[in-house]
């Protein structure tokens, strides 16, 4: 009772609370990194694949006919370029490719989901994200009196950013899957029009394989922070070693949250997506 009261009075209770929040959120994150949208939520995937996708597919078939005609008339009315048999064959091949992608889109996307999940599992990552402070010494008590609430807020905000980034990815994948038949028909529209389909494919691939970059960031970032030499404290200075551990935990959390939050832009810059 007296120890609990001491923790509360010195704000050190926020360390235990912050560690609990951080550990719970990271446990939720690591539990879904290796999942596909089908296994993440069967109800959501059933709604997308069984209800939304057939509706958008029927609309996409109409779009395919329209975009093919648009591409045909654009090329035939271009007085600077003769409308040759090669151009007609190119439009026909693109229309056929768009039709194949639309009809087999679910199977293709499921295969990409499984490939991304397999790569994420192979990348490994870190299973222990605990930010334990260790024994509460004079440094921990002093740090808690001054920055205990700040430490808790860092745990909450950084953990929440990682949590929302990972779980938000699944929501975006569901929407991208449902919208695929609406974007792919533009592939048959020829130059200029086909940019819509190319943009969708890049966005889908980037979001699908973003999980691999997230796992790598989490694994490398955690090991990097644990490998930093923060120095050893001997004698009286060792009494304040807990404050150093608190700062190390905060640096680790901020680095991991920033890395995961920027995983999408990192994919786009590096791979041109």
Automatic annotation (TrEMBL):
This is Uncharacterized protein.
